[in-house]
Every structure is written in structure tokens, then in C-alpha cells.
Amino acid sequence: MRRILVAGNWKMNTTAASGVELARGVAAGAPAGESGVDVLVAPPFPYLVPVKEALQGSVVQLGAQNAYFEESGAFTGEVSVDMLLDVGCNAVILGHSERRHVLGETDEVINRKVKASLAKGLQVILCVGELLDDREAGRTEAILDEQMAGGLADVDAEALKNVVIAYEPVWAIGTGKTASPDQAESAHAHLRKWLADRYNAESADSMQILYGGSVKPANAKELIGQDNVDGALVGGASLSAENFLGIVTAAT
Ligand code: PEP
């Protein structure tokens, strides 16, 4: 049985004070580990430390929204994997569509970040997903294949155990337009088959594949209820403890 993960991507939102308040609210309502549902929040870099403190004593895990592949040195503005581990991060989101399409990250750069994170034992939440044009042109699966092959190049089956995949159709992110449960299930089943072909059945069966794209308390149950959907990566709705916990409850 795969565990469920509900992860909140706060993006470039909150202040130190509102982030701490949000983290406290999530920590207070998160279910115990035996529920089968894990909960993670990913605040902006400057708030990782106060949010970690706010999560102290709770089961909620801490994630970062990005990491750089070099260990240290003259890389102004970047944050290394060691730094994330140093402040208590459990995971890092890589390959988010905003990093791909707004900040121009390529599969090659994402792959270097994936490998650097896995080499240090930091769990990777690798995001993949097609643009609306790709979907309309029938290229969804080809794009997913390309992003999976690029992001996971040179990642072996052992290292893959510390990877979670997030399927996030770009047209559904922050738009209020959610993929239908069938569309999500079909993409997730395709991703699992890709993993079985590229790795093996065991790697594919054990992989957590999250859905992301306008997930809310009202649609979470049906989406996460699909056979191949193992949780959610939540943007907008993760900025309210009530909404985020509503999704966690729907997943439980
Ligand atoms: C995201 O940014 O990962 C995301 C899924 O955003 P939203 O839930 O706002 O669509």
C-alpha cells in the first residue's frame, strides 16, 4: 500500500509572521502518522527556519521549493542542498512548471538538481506536466515521457526510492481549472507504466505520484481516490490552514 502525501507549495507568498501562523495551524490539525497520510509544507527560503520551529513536535514535514546543484561557492542567490538539510528540510520540489516556464529551467538543469539532492539523501518531489497546447495537440504523454527521461537521467532504481513524482498539468495550475479525475488517472497510469518500463514493476508500484493543479477541499477526495493518485501538491489552497487541512482530511 502506498502512503498518501499532501504537500503545500506556498510559492512566493506569506510573511514571516503569517507563514509561522499558517504552519502552526497546519501542525495543529495534521493527522497522526498512523493515518497513512503524510503532510508537508514548502515555504519560501527565508521562512524555512521559523516555519521549522513552528512545526516542532508535529508530524508535518518541511520542504523547499528549489535547490541548486553545486555544493557551495560563487553562485549568487542560490541555495545548496546542504543548506536545506542544515535547516531541517525533508524534501525539495524540483522541476515545478513555474521554474520551467517562468525561470527557464531545462530538463538538464532539473536533472542536475535531482541528482545533487538524491546524493545527499534529500527527498525529491519532481514535477512534470504538459502545457495546454501540448494537451490539445495530443502530445501530453510525449511531454511527460520527455520530462521523466530528462529529470531522471542517471537516477538508478535505488536512488528512485527517494523520489516522488507530481503530475501537474500546467493549464490547471493556479487557474481554477482542475484536470478531471479521469484525465488525472490516465496521466498517472501512464507515468507508472513509464516507470515500470524504465525501471521495474516494484519501482513503479511503490512510486508515490501526486496530482497538482487547483486542488481544493471540494475536489480532493475524487482526485486522490483514483487508483494511481497518491496525494496532492497544492498551491493556492495551501495558503489557508483550513483549506489545506480540508484537503488532508479528504485524503485520509
Ligand atoms: C502548484 O503550484 O504546485 C499548484 C498545484 O498550484 P495550484 O494548486 O494553485 O493550482
UniProtKB/TrEMBL annotation:
InterPro entries: Aldolase_TIM, TIM_sf, TrioseP_Isoase_bac/euk, Triosephosphate_isomerase, Triosephosphate_isomerase_AS. GO terms for cellular component: cytosol. It is an enzyme of class 5 (isomerase). Substrate binds at N9, W10, K11, G174, S214, G235, G236. Its EC number is 5.3.1.1. It is found in: Cytoplasm. It catalyses: D-glyceraldehyde 3-phosphate = dihydroxyacetone phosphate. Keywords: Cytoplasm, Gluconeogenesis, Glycolysis, Isomerase. GO terms for biological process: gluconeogenesis; glyceraldehyde-3-phosphate biosynthetic process; glycerol catabolic process; glycolytic process. Coiled coil: none annotated. NCBIfam families: tim (TIGR00419). Homodimer. Involved in the gluconeogenesis. Catalyzes stereospecifically the conversion of dihydroxyacetone phosphate (DHAP) to D-glyceraldehyde-3-phosphate (G3P). This is Triosephosphate isomerase. It comes from Maioricimonas rarisocia. The lineage of its organism: Bacteria, Pseudomonadati, Planctomycetota, Planctomycetia, Planctomycetales.
